[in-house]
Each structure stands twice: as C-alpha cells, then as structure tokens.
Specification:
Number of helices: 14
CATH architecture of the largest domain: 3-Layer(aba) Sandwich
Number of strands: 16
Strand content: 15-25%
Strand order of the largest sheet: 10-9-11-8-7-12-13
CATH topology of the largest domain: Aldehyde Dehydrogenase, Chain A, domain 1
Length: about 450
C-alpha cells in the first residue's frame, strides 16, 4: 500500500461502496454494498470501543494533541478540499448563511485545533466517582462514570463537527461513527484523516473514529437502526428535517434538538445600550448557528423610543426585520410579520419582533412558540430576571448576555456535539461528561443479605 503525501499510509478502514442507486465512493479500497460497508464499520467501532474505554487519559490526550498538530499542518489541504464543497454548494444555489456554516479558512481550522487541545486539557471523566456512600452494613457504594460505547453522529453542513464530535467521543472513552452531509464530504474527509493520524500516533485504534465513506442516504437509515446493535446512541446535528427523521426512525436512544428557535426579551428595566449590543450580537454575529436569536420580544412598558432604537440597530446591521403593528409603527422599514414568523428558525439575517406585556407576556410567548433551546432576558431588575429564569424551562437561559453563548466551547467544555433539548440523560451542550453514563461499584467485606 503506497504512502500519502505526508508519508503516512492511507487508512485501512476506508471503503469504496456502491449504493443502491449505483453511485460509488471515492476511496477504491474495496467494493460492495452500503449495507456491507456499514456492517464492517459497526463491527470495527464496537471492537474499538472496548479498547478506548480502557485507554489511559494520557493516550487519549496524546491522540487529541497530535490530531490538533495534524490539523494545523494540513491547513492548506483542508482549505482546498473545502473549496470543492463550497463550489458545489454555491452551484446548487445554497444561501449565504449555509455557505458560512460550510466555509473553512485558516482561522477556523486553527479554532478546531484549539478545540481539540482544550478537550485534551479537560479532566478525564472515565472512572471518576460521581458519588460515594457507606451503608450501615459496611458496604461501600460508588457511582462511577463509564463510556456510552459507540456514538453515531449524523450531521450536515458544518465540517468542524467532524473534529469536535470525534474528539469529545474519544475523550469520554467512546468510539464514534461520523456521517457528515454530502455538502461537506470533502472537508470532512480531510479533517478525519488528521484525527486518524492522531489516533495512530498515540497507539489507539484508528477505528475509534470512523467516517462513513458514502454520501448515500441508505447509510443514515442503517445507522438509525443501530447497525445490528453496534451503535449505542445517535446524535443528530443539522436542520429540522434531519433531526425529525432521526427522532422518527431511530431504534436507539437519541440526543437531539428539533430546532433552535431562540428568543431575546428586552424588559422595561433594561439598559438600552446594553440591550442594543446584546440584540445585534445575538442575531447577527453568526446568523446560521442554532443559538442565533430568531425573535426579539420587547416590553410594552419599555421607555419611549426603546423599540425604535433596537429595530434601527438591527436594520443598520443589514438584518431584515419582520414585526407586529408596534414594530412597524416604530420604523417604517419593518415588514409585516405573519403567524408563521413566530415559529420560524430563519438561520439567516432575518428576525421577527413583537411587543409583549412585560415578562409574563414574554414567558407566555416563548412557551407557545419556543423550542426550549436558548432564551435570554435583558433586564436590570433582578426579580424580573429571576422570574424569567425560573418559569421558563429552556435548556439554556441567559440574563444580560447574548444567546450566541449557547455553545459548549463557551461553557468551558472545549466543544460540544450539539445542544440537547430533551429531558433524559443529556440537556444543553453535549460535552465530554454528557457522553458518559455510569455504573455502580459495590465493595464489601464478606456481607451477605439476610
């Protein structure tokens, strides 16, 4: 087998697969059906999971640090691969917000590398005692963190998820099967190669992080069925249609959020300058992320001119504003909002604006239209803020801060696979600790039960 340009042999775990519609992958190592290739991936992941579950913290961290170095070394190659994906997306007429999510440059690649280094620097969760107590009969009981096993991640346009998800799974002692979208296929392959080199350099199985070698949708269906028991949990990260399909078809547990319908409420007690900064950042910093504010709610009792200032700031930042009658009265440039706008995740430079009757009106609106992802209040009155934070049950709630902080990296987790809005096991950013479960270890001195 010949070496690649960096003198490293190509991965033995890649496959060329011929799908049911006759399309063929681009790594001609072996030929066969999608089903056959996926079964091989699943079996390899299950075997790798047994190894990485017992791997030392030092070995896992070494792999992540080596992968970070490989990302930086391969920056030019990754950017070149990403250009192919961007060109195809542009030709397909994808919107600018989609292209922004897809785009990689040297800065974003360095950010991925730093994310891997931050994950490596986190404490190893595997084997840590979450709780410990002693029973009257002398039995000592510990609740101990253990890996989930094999995590399947299905994602769309964000190629950086390849690095984040693979690294988080490894740190938590799991094996990962990554299925990126066809729009980021070349970028994901280039990134995955760096992860595999890091694993190899640390003496860990390359199959601990595998990238599905085909863009055929059949692979997704097979993952949702669990690959014959190989996959323990599925994490979808993408648009509403992808997540809905995963939640509907999955035969294994799912960590997911359906959409990021995020709100920012500006209270009558808010500092206007602070509110303006937060609102513009929450919407416009990156419009295509799941933590971007999609609806601005403003207190009807806010000081005169407050609504006009906020609306004008958004429009001047090149955001299209769709509002209710009050918002239209405040600025003639505001377009009329429809009922559908209150439940739309734009993922673009568009926002809906509505005036509400105080904090209770904001809470009622969010409970009606929100997705329990991320919601924020801007208020100086602490009692009002606490009412908002207590009465809403979103996965992330913020006071006097931008909804764009809904990110595992900003939470000090190094990165996250996604934001979970369910109520079981994981909620909010899914980081290293959320990718573990636990077992009970009981130690005795010869006790028997009467």
């Amino acid at each position: 087998m010949t070496a690649d340009r960096d003198g490293v042999r190509p991965l033995a775990t890649t496959f060329a697969v011929k799908s049911s519609n006759g399309r063929e992958g681009s790594d001609p190592v072996a030929q066969g059906s999608v089903g056959e290739a996926m079964q091989v991936l699943g079996a390899a992941a299950r075997e790798a999971a047994r190894g990485v579950a017992l791997a030392s913290a030092e070995a896992k961290d070494q792999a992540l640090e080596a992968a970070a170095a490989q990302l930086r070394r391969a920056t030019a190659a990754i950017v070149e691969a990403n250009k192919r994906d961007l060109a195809a997306a542009a030709e397909a007429g994808r919107p600018g917000s989609f292209l922004d999510r897809l785009m990689l440059d040297a800065g974003r690649i360095d950010g991925m590398a730093k994310g891997l280094e931050e994950i490596a620097a986190l404490p190893d969760p595997v084997g840590t005692a979450m709780a410990e107590w002693t029973r009257p009969n002398g039995l000592t009981i510990q609740r101990v963190r253990v890996p989930l096993g094999v995590v399947g991640i299905i994602y769309e346009s964000r190629p950086n998820v390849t690095a984040d998800a693979g690294a988080l799974c490894l740190k938590a002692g799991n094996a990962a099967i990554l299925r990126g979208g066809s729009e980021s296929h070349h970028s994901a392959r280039a990134i995955h190669t760096c992860l595999a080199r890091g694993l190899r350099g640390a003496g860990l199985p390359e199959t601990a992080i595998q990238l599905v070698p085909t863009t055929d949708r059949e692979a997704v269906g097979l993952m949702l069925k669990g690959l014959g028991g190989a996959i323990d949990v599925i994490v979808p990260r993408g648009g509403k249609s992808l997540v809905a399909r995963v939640q509907e078809e999955a035969r294994v547990p799912v960590f997911a959020h359906l959409e990021g319908l995020c709100h920012t409420y500006v209270d009558r007690s808010a500092d206007l300058e602070m509110a303006k900064r937060i609102v513009v950042n929450a919407k416009m910093r990156r419009t295509g992320v799941c933590g971007a504010t999609e609806t601005l709610l403003v207190d009807r009792a806010a000081p005169e001119g407050c609504l006009a200032v906020l609306v004008a700031a958004l429009i001047e930042a090149d955001c299209e504003v769709r509002g209710d009658g009050a918002a239209q009265d405040a600025d003639s440039r505001v377009k009329p909002a429809t009922e559908q706008d209150w439940s739309t995740e734009y993922l673009d430079a568009i926002i809906s604006v509505k005036v509400v009757d105080g904090v209770d009106g904001a809470i009622a609106h969010i409970q009606t239209y929100g997705s329990q992802h991320t919601d924020a209040i801007v208020a100086d009155d602490q009692a009002t803020a606490e009412r908002f934070l207590t009465r809403l049950d979103s996965a992330i709630l913020l006071h006097n801060a931008s909804t764009q902080f809904a990110d595992g990296g900003e939470f000090g987790m190094g990165a996250e696979i996604g934001i979970a809005t369910g109520r079981l096991h994981a909620r909010g950013p899914v980081g290293v600790e959320q990718l573990t479960t636990f077992k009970y270890v009981v130690r005795g001195t010869g006790q028997t039960r009467p």
